[in-house]
Amino acid sequence: MRAWITLAAVAGLLLYSGCKKSSSPNTPDNPGDTSELTDKVLTDKLTFPWEVLWGPDNKLWITERGGKVSSVDPVTGNITLIKTISEVVSRGEGGLLGMVLHPDFAATPEVFVAYNYDKAGNYLKKIVKFTYSGGTLINPVTLLDNIPAANNHNGTRLAISPDKKLFITSGDAATSSRAQDKDNPAGKIQRINLDGSIPADNPIAGSPVWSYGHRNPQGLVFVGDRLYSSEHGNATDDEINIIQKGRNFGWPNVQGYCNTNDEKTFCSANDVAEPIQAWSPTIAPSGIDYYNKDAIPQWKGSLLLAVLKDSELLQIKLNSAGTGVEKVNTFYKNKYGRMRDVAISPDGKVYIITSNGGSDKVIEIRKAP
């Protein structure tokens, strides 16, 4: 093990341990070098896709907000419908959203999805587990229900931890006060067992709440046992956060870093965790994945972030400890429009879905031949 550590890593470790910095300048976004990359459109026949992930069948699994779960052949671009979930109600940015597959899919072919629906006139979100059989999804089991939803601020990205717990992001559903209310599931990151039960070691006994004070977290990825999330700010301070058990992430009392007098007071009194990266003005960050392949060496050890408002893919190079950001590079700005999510294949190709509402695309990026 090295006996030295960079200043950036020291700063990150202090932050991760809960020490407060008064402020931190944004890492500038620099144009990334695409000379050794090649990009192409696999298909342009999607409508508001939300999730893309690499499946165990070597296909891309995708959700669309209108209720479709489909697979895309990364060789031909052909789309195969797996399931249309009829209960889904899509309003604004609501609908069929996050999805994740069981990590032991061959033995346990379970598919976890999150979607909005109408319940007696109330717009809500539920988490449902399906079984994949015969090319479709069967036997739905509701794991978690009655999560507030709205036309926006639904969050809703899913991830499964190495110890097989399901993590769920939920936005404040356009009511900011919910984020600080530990009894309200909105504005939270929740953690449940894969059967829907509540883990005994959750911060609050009998509650799925894992962290709180979130506005609209739309990205979630595990790197080992460390959980990273991307989150929409309001007029300022979009964020990348390291999610920690039981921690308060500040919204609506804190935006970004604890750097105003009121924020410093609230942060000190409420053990607020600060982001490792923030952007002002906002960029509208969405899905993230972690690149640790050799195929595109310049991206190794980086979070890849799909960006909506600024219509780009960001490479967020982490420090060696994974606790801070060394640099941010931007790729394909304004080339494909709004980018919603990103996935990585086992051989190091990168796949991006757009969110433009018409002829939405799957884009493949690989090292140039």
TrEMBL record:
Transmembrane segments: none annotated. It comes from the Bacteria. InterPro entries: 6-blade_b-propeller_TolB-like, Glc/Sorbosone_DH, Quinoprot_gluc/sorb_DH_b-prop. Residues 47-357 form the Glucose/Sorbosone dehydrogenase domain. PANTHER family: HEDGEHOG-INTERACTING PROTEIN (PTHR19328), HIPL1 PROTEIN (PTHR19328:SF13). This is PQQ-dependent sugar dehydrogenase. It comes from Mucilaginibacter terrigena.
